[in-house]
Amino acid sequence: MKIFLTGASGYIGRHVRSTFLRAGYQVVALTRQACPPDANTKNLEWLQADLRDLSRHLEVMKRCDVIVHTAMEYSEDGEVAGADLRACEAFSHTTLPIIYTGNLFSSLSGTDGTIAEAALFNGPERLSDVDAGSRHWRNQVERVLLRLPNRVAIIRLGFVYGGIGSHLCDILPRSNSGAYVYYEGSQHEWPMVHIADVCALYLEALTADANGIFHAAQPGTLISDVVQAAARHAGRSAEARNAGDPDLRDDASAFLERSVTAHNSRARAIGWQPRIQFPDFLDSSPDVDFSERRRHA
Ligand SMILES: NC(=O)c1ccc[n+]([C@@H]2O[C@H](COP(=O)([O-])OP(=O)(O)OC[C@H]3O[C@@H](n4cnc5c(N)ncnc54)[C@H](OP(=O)(O)O)[C@@H]3O)[C@@H](O)[C@H]2O)c1
Prior knowledge:
- The chain has 297 residues and is α/β, with parallel strands linked by helices.
- It contains nine helices and 16 strands.
- The protein has helices at residues 11-22, 58-62, 81-91, 137-147, 168-171, 195-207, 223-234, 250-256, 265-269, and strands spanning 2-6, 26-31, 44-48, 66-69, 74-75, 78-79, 98-103, 114-115, 152-157, 159-161, 180-183, 189-194, 212-216, 218-222, 238-241, 261-262.
- The protein has a seven-stranded parallel beta sheet, with helices on both faces.
- The chain is globular.
- The two termini are 21 Å apart.
- Residues 7, 9-13, 30-33, 50-52, 70-73, 79, 83, 101, 103, 157, 159-160, 167 line the site of NADP nicotinamide-adenine-dinucleotide phosphate.
C-alpha cells in the first residue's frame, strides 16, 4: 500500500510516517521544505508541496492508495482554514480513501462538554460553502468530507503527548511569570492520548477500512493533573489560580474553563486499544521508535 501523507514533518505526521514505514507501507511524505535526495529511501519519497497547491500533484496522489492528512497551517490566531480547505478540495478530485486529522478541542460539544463520535449533517454541502471564519469550520469540513463518495475516516485527536516533537509543554496555559496554571478546585477534564496510541489508531483506520468519525482520546484526566505533570517534566512551577486572575494570559482562561470529554467507542470497535495512561510521559513508547530527531531522516 502506498500512502500520500501530508504533514509528514510535523509532530503527528512524523510519528505516523515512522509507524507506516515500519508496517511495510510505502509513503509519499509532504513538506514545504526542500529535501535532499538522500532523504528518500526505498519506501519513502519526500515531496515538496504546499497544501494550497496540491492540485499540481494530483497525478502523484492518484498513484497512491490512500490519503492521510495530518498537515495544518497555523497563524498567530490558530489553525488556518484556507489551506485546509484547498487541500480537501484537491483530495475530493480523487477516488482515494481519505484519513483526515480532526481536533477534539475545536469540535462541537454539548452543554456538558461531551463530544460524541458522530457528525451533524445539517452543515454546508460543499467545501466552497464552508464558513472559514466560523469557530466550527473544522466540523463543517468534516461534514462535507463525510458526504464525498470517497471512504473517509476522521480521526479527532485529543491532547497528544509523548515522543519527539510534542507541543504539550509549549501550549499549556501559563501565567505572565511563566508558571503553568490551572483553576483552583476545578474538576475539568481534558482527553489525553499518547502519540504511540495515536499511531496505533491510524494503523487500525488503514487496515480496518474505517469510515466515519473516530476519537483518539482517553477521557477522564483532570486538567490540574496534566498541568502538574507537565510542570514536573519541564522543571517549572504549577500554580492554582482563581478564574479571572489578572496575571493569567488572555488565552489561558478560555483553555481552562471547560471540560472536554470524548467518547471513543467507535475507535475501540475497530480494534483500537489505547495502552498508555496519562501521565506515563515521554518514556513509554512500546511500539514507536522515537529516536529519530531529524525531520527528514
Ligand atoms: N498535537 C496535538 O496535540 C494535536 C491535538 C489535536 C489535534 N491535532 C491536529 O493534528 C494535526 C497536526 O498537528 P501537529 O501537532 O502535528 O502540527 P505540527 O507539528 O505543527 O505540524 C504541522 C505540519 O503541517 C505542515 N504544514 C503546515 N502548513 C502547511 C502548508 N501550507 N502546506 C503543506 N504543509 C503544511 C508542516 O510541514 P512543513 O512545515 O514541513 O511544511 C508540518 O508537517 C492538526 O490538524 C492539529 O489540529 C494535534
